[in-house]
Design a protein that fits this description.
Elements (H helix, E strand, L loop, with lengths): L4 H21 L2 H55 L7 H82 L4 H11 L9 E5 L2 E2 L8 H9 L14 E4 L1
Parallel strand pairs: 1-3
Antiparallel strand pairs: 1-2
Helix pairs in contact: 1-3, 2-3
Length: 240
């Protein structure tokens, strides 16, 4: 076994840690949360608008109700006065009847407006009920997603703790300078998380370049704790 074989074991642990973090980061439930938040904001805005519309419509309906009541009283008062025993001539009777007819027409118009408003309020109430149902469904879905995320995060945290503990013992066996190079290369975007590679049959285990015999012989002659890097991908080579 090579002196630097533990570096490959560390790399396996690091790749496992990367996979665990990616599992948590790429959860479909996590990706769905922003869309659910946007949907909830839209529902909240629609509910607020509908409630404002309902309040305004209720105020209009109350005002119309008062107007209808006042017109009805005016009609009743005129009828009482008409038949109170006071003698009126024909022209006054005609004027009275015309006035009453106009009041009844006004009353019918107001009642029709009031009915339309009541129907509008009913429609708003139905819309509000649908929106409240949608809001409840949205919150339930968000809660389910959050529970799933927390479960996976807990599992990932436990896995990372286990991998970190296993890695700690191996780190002590790697020279600091070699470990620093490994870590720097591993963090490069195109490294795929691999900062080391095995050297077997003159080939780099990652980029697969085959080394010339003289270069390979020179590497093999280096001390076991020497830093040897692939001439192409620059990963730390672990001699087999």
């Amino acid at each position: 076994m090579s002196f630097l074989t533990p570096l490959l074991e560390i790399q396996d642990l690091d790749l496992a840690s990367d996979a665990a973090r990616e599992r948590s980061a790429a959860l479909p439930e996590r990706e769905a949360l922003p869309a659910l938040e946007r949907e909830l904001a839209e529902i909240d805005a629609a509910v607020a608008a509908a409630e404002a519309e309902r309040t305004a419509s209720a105020a209009d309906e109350e005002r119309l109700g008062l107007e209808v009541g006042q017109v009805a009283r005016d009609i009743e008062d005129a009828e009482v006065e008409r038949y109170a025993g006071k003698r009126i001539d024909r022209d006054e009777a005609v004027a009275h009847d015309a006035s009453q007819a106009a009041l009844r027409e006004k009353q019918e118009g107001l009642e029709e407006q009031e009915m339309e408003l009541l129907e509008k309020i009913d429609a708003i109430e139905q819309r509000l009920a649908e929106q409240e149902s949608a809001r409840a469904a949205n919150r339930l879905e968000a809660e389910k997603n959050s529970v799933s995320i927390e479960k996976v995060e807990s599992e990932v945290a436990a896995e990372l703790e286990r991998l970190s503990a296993a890695r700690f013992g191996l780190e002590q066996r790697i020279p600091e300078a070699i470990y620093a190079v490994y870590d720097r290369i591993r963090e490069q975007p195109r490294s795929g998380g691999r900062g080391a590679a095995s050297l077997v049959d003159r080939r780099c285990g990652t980029c697969r370049i085959k080394l010339p015999s003289l270069e390979h012989s020179r590497m093999q002659a280096e001390p076991e704790d020497a830093l040897i890097q692939c001439p192409q991908c620059r990963r730390v080579l672990v001699r087999g």
